[in-house]
Recover the amino acids of this structure.
């Protein structure tokens, strides 16, 4: 069974857990004391991942130390329909483009969130503006998609692009970044939550309709 | 940020750090009740605490107890809360880390002893949709009215702790020995008849933000600490996502402001108890 | 009522404001909305009824917009309190056998649905229904990090550009006309190769007709004051090419963030105040009765 070095409050790890849940892939979590222990920063963890980050995926002898690469790996190995990582050339490029966006432009949202949770500090004005600029890019893209009846980041079905962008954006309020000005994002969150097999993490409210 | 003038708040003890969070020879700045503080740990391991901007106020009182660093900015008329279980050595001590919450400390405490959110906020662990009913419990004052207790609480929990293997009905007592401290005494799933403790020590930075320092004293020899820690962090981060979005952030004391129900007996008592204490800090005293 | 614009409350509660396009609020979904500093949850039941409530559970102050719509009810995510479409609590899961207190009711705001939008009034509505303007299709709601007055000045003076590759057309000459037959004011801007006729149709609503290289197109802008220093723009037009219109709106919003345009905007806003000191606030915000 594949193993995942995991922390319950890491939105990066949640991306992997979410994709596994949606594809029905089982994994064994290896829990890392990120807070307050900082175990991922210690020399012993550098032997597992020299970048000292989580998640890390161990699939047999193969080890992957990067969230986007893990998502690609799981989609290629466990999604024969090729929906989550489309084979179509343009859609493939667009999907990878969003993975890059999630890793780069949305990284600030992730760090603001962890700083806020661990009481390490709050967002500066500049950081707040950068966070909103990144969210506006997603909002504009989703709003344009809706005008063309495209309800996902890439094309008409969810892909790993959605999996990479959903956690940092929906969890923005955890880091003090409000989401009221992003109505198209809000509608997309609702669509993601209604996917068959969807799971939550702390900070994401479940879809209560019909289950209560 | 300005230091509060509320003497009830100033004359209490607050945790400002877990001692091992600050290495020897290091200092840390923090804020308590609107007052900026500099905490310094000497090479002998002892702590000193000074006001960053004195303005003629006396230096803070500093104590180490239960592994935490306690500070009072005023003249406390009582000792730091007594928790004898810290010296019993039959349980495992787990420092759960500090968690920042952009809300009043009182909102955090009230959420901590609230039973009826388990099914909705901690679905699958501390509660389930199909068993949301809250059985009756009672509220008592102890230690000459100094402490508020909710006793005889019970709830059906799918996974009551990291050690739980199956759903069970769990019995609880909640102790609220000061406005910013709450300790739960909860049935151990490992040693029947014994209690696990989970406690929150809140450091209010200002009226609408705080840091929660917390610990657990549990009977659990099987699980590694990290496993137990992840369980607690899951629970606490779920609570935090509620606390982020409650308005007002200060706790309203008037019963007209927020409509209670039967299971809110402890919350009603807590708000009345705070009201009577004369505390102003972190409370919303508007009547309607 | 006072004739001095400065004495009007900046955010007038007596008029209807659009908060979400009908097409953007599907059955069984909700949207958080900020109107004049008030946080609202706007939701549509399974049967299709749209409601706007204070985004605050009467029990413990949790935001209802993090909950969920189930059939004709809205569920709070904190304790599962369930509210019927009259906003009374009908279910408290902690006490299944107990009828909830009548005091357990969410705060309801007057809501209407017309012309492709859900409209909300924070006070007593001065008219039974929002004024209709048929012929325009709601396309996009965008948020602007500018004061409402600046965004009004922008839409009154800078035409949207469907060819987004071009530089923004700043006005070179402005002509203001106050209509004799009502409170509305027409205004004309001429830029180097573009023209814009913009007119207040009703408070907070601007009809624009832009001309570019001999081609005319019109659009309808409805403004929603959100929080201080920002606002939402609900944009509609009669055309079928929604994508071009949306891109023009994005370009317009991004242009306003350019420092040189922002400073011109302040001039325009002052000019508006100079030319229409009495009526401007009323035209932007609606007048209090």
């Amino acid at each position: 069974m594949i193993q995942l070095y995991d922390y319950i409050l890491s939105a990066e790890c949640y991306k992997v857990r979410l994709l596994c849940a949606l594809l029905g892939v089982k994994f064994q979590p290896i829990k890392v004391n990120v807070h307050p222990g900082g175990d991922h920063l210690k020399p012993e963890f550098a032997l597992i991942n020299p970048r000292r980050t989580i998640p890390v995926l161990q699939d047999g002898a193969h080890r992957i130390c990067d969230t986007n690469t893990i998502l690609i790996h799981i989609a290629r190995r466990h999604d024969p329909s090729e929906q989550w990582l489309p084979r179509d050339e343009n859609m493939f490029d667009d999907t990878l483009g969003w993975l890059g966006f999630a890793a780069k432009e949305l990284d600030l949202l992730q760090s603001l969130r962890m700083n806020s949770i661990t009481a390490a500090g709050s967002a500066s004005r500049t950081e707040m503006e950068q966070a909103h600029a990144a969210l506006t890019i997603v909002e504009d893209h989703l709003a344009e998609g809706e005008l063309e009846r495209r309800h996902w980041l890439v094309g008409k079905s969810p892909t790993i692009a959605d999996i990479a962008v959903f956690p940092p954006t929906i969890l923005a309020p955890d880091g003090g970044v409000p989401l009221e000005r992003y109505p198209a994002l809000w509608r997309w969150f609702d669509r993601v939550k209604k996917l068959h097999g969807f799971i939550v993490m702390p900070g994401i409210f479940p879809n209560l309709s019909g289950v209560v | 940020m300005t230091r509060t003038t509320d003497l009830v708040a100033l004359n209490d003890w607050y945790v400002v750090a877990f001692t091992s969070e600050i290495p020897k020879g290091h200092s840390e700045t923090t804020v308590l009740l609107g007052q900026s503080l500099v905490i310094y740990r000497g090479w002998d391991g002892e702590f000193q605490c000074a006001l960053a901007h004195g303005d003629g106020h006396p230096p803070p009182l500093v104590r180490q107890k239960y592994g935490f660093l306690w500070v009072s900015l005023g003249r406390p008329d009582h000792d730091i809360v007594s928790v004898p279980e810290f010296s019993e050595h039959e349980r495992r001590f787990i420092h759960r880390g500090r968690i920042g919450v952009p809300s009043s400390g009182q909102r955090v405490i009230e959420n901590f002893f609230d039973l009826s959110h388990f099914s909705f906020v901690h679905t699958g662990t501390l509660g389930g949709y199909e068993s949301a009913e809250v059985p009756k419990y009672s509220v008592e004052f102890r230690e000459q009215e100094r402490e508020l207790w909710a006793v005889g609480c019970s709830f059906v929990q799918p996974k009551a702790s990291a050690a739980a293997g199956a759903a069970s009905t769990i019995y609880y007592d909640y102790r609220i020995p000061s406005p910013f401290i709450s300790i739960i005494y909860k049935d151990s799933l490992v040693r029947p008849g014994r209690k696990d403790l989970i406690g929150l020590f809140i450091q209010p930075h200002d009226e609408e933000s705080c840091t929660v320092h917390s610990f657990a004293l549990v009977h659990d020899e099987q699980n590694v600490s990290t496993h137990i820690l992840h369980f607690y962090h899951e629970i606490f981060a779920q609570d935090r996502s509620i606390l982020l979005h409650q308005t007002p952030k200060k706790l309203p004391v008037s019963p007209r402001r927020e409509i209670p129900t039967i299971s809110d007996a402890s919350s009603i008592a807590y708000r009345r108890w705070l009201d009577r204490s004369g505390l102003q800090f972190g409370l919303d005293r508007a009547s309607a | 009522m006072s004739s001095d614009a400065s004495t009007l409350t900046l955010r007038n509660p007596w008029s209807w404001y659009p908060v979400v396009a009908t097409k953007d609020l599907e059955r069984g979904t909700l949207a958080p909305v900020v109107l004049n500093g008030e946080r609202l949850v706007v939701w549509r039941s399974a049967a299709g009824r749209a409601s706007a409530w204070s985004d605050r559970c009467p029990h413990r102050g949790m935001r209802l917009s993090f909950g969920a719509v189930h059939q004709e009810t809205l569920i709070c995510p904190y304790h599962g309190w369930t509210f019927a479409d009259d906003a009374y609590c009908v279910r408290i899961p902690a006490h299944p056998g107990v009828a909830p207190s009548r005091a357990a009711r969410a705060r309801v705001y007057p809501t209407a649905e017309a012309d492709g939008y859900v409209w909300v009034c924070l006070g007593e509505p001065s008219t039974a229904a929002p004024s209709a303007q048929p012929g325009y299709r709601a396309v996009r709601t965008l948020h602007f990090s500018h004061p409402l007055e600046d965004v009004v000045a922008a839409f009154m003076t800078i035409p949207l550009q469907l060819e987004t590759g071009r530089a923004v057309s700043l006005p070179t000459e402005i002509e203001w006309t106050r209509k004799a037959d009502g409170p509305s004011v027409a205004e004309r801007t001429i830029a180097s190769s573009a023209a814009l006729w913009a007119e207040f149709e009703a408070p907070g609503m601007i009809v624009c007709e832009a001309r570019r290289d001999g081609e005319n197109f019109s659009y309808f802008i409805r403004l929603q004051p959100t929080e201080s220093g920002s606002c939402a723009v609900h944009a509609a037009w009669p055309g079928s090419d929604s994508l071009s219109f949306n891109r023009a709106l994005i370009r317009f919003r991004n242009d306003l963030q350019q420092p040189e345009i922002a400073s011109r905007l302040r001039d325009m806003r002052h000019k508006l105040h100079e030319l229409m000191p009495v009526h401007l606030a009323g035209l932007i915000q609606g007048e209090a009765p």
